[in-house]
Amino acid sequence: MLTSITGYWLRVIAPSAIESQELTLGPFPPGTNVYANISLNELNTYFELDSSNTKYSATGYIPYWTHYKDDGTESNQMQSMGFNQNAVAVDNCARIWLVLEGFRVVASALVNVITY
Q1: From CA 78, how far away is CA 35, in angstroms rounded?
Q2: pTM of the model
Q3: N or C: where does the chain have the smaller number of CB atoms within 10 Å of the terminal CB?
Q4: How many percent of the chain have pLDDT more than 70?
């Protein structure tokens, strides 16, 4: 049964170096199932790019999460698929970490969290 839907915004302003914003969700009460995703919403290259360096990037991903073990303790961090993991469903979820990174951009991302 659906118990909540929550949204969060992350934003990075990264004119010349990699910048990141991290969001840690939890700890959730034991027995909570969680679906979370992160989606890029904005990507702007306001910064001057010279002919020797025209590269820029932004990515939103979930690096890891934890769940509650049978004895009630929190598990070790479960590794994701790295930059390719932008959504996850975790039964008996303890925590989920989400990251937005940018390089030479202004970027924002929307995080959706559904508990059930």
Answers
A1: 15
A2: 0.90
A3: N
A4: 97
